[in-house]
Amino acid sequence: MDMETEKKSYIASEELRKHSSPSDLWISIQGKVYNVTDWVKHHPGGELPLLNLAGQDVTDAFVAFHPASAWKHLDRFFVGYQLSDYRVSEVSKDYRRLVAEIAKLGLYDKKGHGVLFSFCLMFALFSVAVYFVVGTESLLAHLAAGGMMGFLWIQSGWMGHDSGHYNVMISPRLNRLAQIVSGNCLAGISIGWWKRNHNAHHIACNSLDFDPDLQHMPLFAVSSKFFQSITSYFYERTMTFDSVSRFLISHQHLTFYPVMCFARVNLFAQSVIHLLSKKKVQDRWQEIAGVMFFWIWYPYLVSFLPNWGERLMFVVASFVITGIQHVQFCLNHFSSSVYVGKPQGNDWFEKQTIGTLNISCSPWMDWFHGGLQFQVEHHLFPRLPRCHLRRVAPLVWELCKKHKLHYSSTSFWEANKRTLGTLRAAALKARSLENPAPRNLVWEALNTHG
Questions:
Q1: 120 occurs within a structural domain
Q2: Transmembrane residues, as ranges (predicted)?
Q3: How many helices (H) and strands (E) does the chain have?
């Protein structure tokens, strides 16, 4: 090897950081540098995880999201032997060892019977709901059918979530079928939109400007930092804090549950926007067909109800029950630590633990939470089937204790209190004169006292 080749083989972190644009994107994994510029548009997890971690060491995120078989594909992107100043923290060393131990135990491949149980429950809920609508004339039965439809959407949401992280079926093709059926066909939600959104959330957990799960302006703001009108890199727009958003946020702790009852409308809208956008969508027409199928069978079922009053009651019941799941999504992160800026590869483990909240519950309630009750473990091991999250939780707790890291777990009710407390604190700051925003006559009239 000549001196010029030897010199190019070693790449410092400063040099790596220069290659952080979509047209020139390098990453480092276990000290080796890879040029993935041309791979971004083909990446199965979408472009955002690579763009958000561009120019950094991404080893922890890589081992979390990829099976062992993915390592063999890295060689074609190799550009340097190792970073000359490459270092691994003790936290990362222990985390990678834990990932390896879980893999040796075969837990990533043992999915249990939860998927079968979920499909059976979904089929039962759908069948009984249809029977109550078509086969009975009872008002209470029709109301119950609407509630069952809501529970069906919740269970289909858990199935879509799991199948988006790992193969819940015996083959990738059947797994894709499970995604389309549970997401697009049964729930009207584009699984492609959800995966793009959810992958960005996992990589940039609780980053105010990179995590879409915290970006609900103008309705909600979990931090007063939103009052600076920061830019969303997911939605590619400025989240403007103006008089309207200030008014809405000032009352967000009061409107939180009512809005969650109808949050599904936003998911419907985001799915349609994504499918009609110019963004890359895997099997776009397959996804569009699935969503169209939902908008055929659901209104058709509603049409069997005898009058518009009962039809409205059925739809509202469906949405309100599903609102439970939307509340669950918020509980895990709204009251946790947040930050502004791009996610960093060198503190990935720390960001996942400090930005998430577990919900303590008995094992018999696991079906209700769909795995989100072990949110810390799910973020650290996103490919791990939910039936094993309870088993690995003590190992994660010990690792956090060893390194004096934050590990938060509380009851469902306490998590609700914390979330409302976070929303109320931000609401009071929004009302404060210390955070001035453009005002109008409506704002002045609604906030005049005495």
A1: yes
A2: 114-133, 139-156, 288-306
A3: 21, 8
Residue 165 structure tokens = 């992280």
Q: pLDDT for 72-105, tens place per residue?
A: 999 999 998 777 778 899 999 999 999 999 999 9
Handedness of CA 335, 340, 344, 346 (dihedral sign): negative
Do 267 and 171 lie in one domain? The reply is yes
Rg of the Cα trace of the chain? 23
Residues spanned by the domain of 43: 11-87
Q: Which pTM does this prediction carry?
A: 0.90
Say whether the peptide bond before residue 385 is cis (omega within 30 degrees of 0).
no
Query: Can you list the positions of beta strands (E) in 115-190?
Result: none
Token pair of 207 as six digits: 């980053």
Could you tell me the CA-to-CA distances from 211 to 101, 198, 218, 299, 385 in Å, in that order? 30, 9, 16, 33, 23
CA-based nearest residue to 368, from 307, 406, 324: 324
pLDDT tens profile 122-140: 999 999 999 999 999 999 9
Let me know: does 242 contact 249? Beta carbons within 8 Å. Answer: no
Q: How far apart are the C-alpha atoms of 396 and 5, rounded to whole Å?
A: 43
CATH number at residue 22: 3.10.120.10
> Would the CA dihedral through 362, 363, 364, 367 be positive or negative?
positive
> DSSP 3-state assignment of 364?
helix
347 φψ region: left (φ > 0), alpha (ψ -120 to 50), beta (else): alpha
Least confident of 28-42, 178-192, 231-245, 426-440: 426-440
Reported residue count of the chain is 450
